[in-house]
Amino acid sequence: MPQSMPTEQQKTPAATPRKKGRLRRAITNLLALAALLVLLLIVTPATTWLFDALGREDPLEPADYIVCLGGDNGRIIESARLLREGYAPRLIVTSHGPHAEEMRAVAIDWGADPSAIFVDAGAVKTRDHPRSIRDGLGVRPDSDRLIVVTSFTHMGRARACFAKAGYRHLILREPRWERTQRPEQRDWKWRFRVLPDVVYEYAAWLEYWIRGVV
Known about the structure:
8 helices, 55% helix
């Protein structure tokens, strides 16, 4: 007797393993490519070049405000030092919700005058800080001079966000302990440590560029 043609239900079980196999091979190839890229970034100077390109530090000058962006305590300590050293009469700590009050407490612990600290609790992302300190604290983008304190890899994106929001007088600074602890010889171990921050920052730049934030 002639054999009947297979139905769609009969075809599916045979096709599904082939599709799964192709998917597994594609995932394996992508992982291998990613591992190769990471290896190249670690063993070559590429990570060092990408890292250095993110820095946007300026010489210190007197300003109207020191603006400490939310993040690690190194930023707060540096901001408190700059306030004590007289670079500006007022310090703004800006983050989200209770984190901003925690920043204020750390700044006071490091010698900042409590009466000189202003708290902005309305900034969740980097793009939020310029608008939040303007609307909440009355900072004037066109005339006020700001010393913006943030991490080295974050300075360029922070500057771009403030400039996009109309701020004309910006001085970007990183915590001095970051600068002094950075080794002169950037070996593969150092590149391995900073690579996650570098990758994150370039990904954030891409997101902000696509969204028109910078």
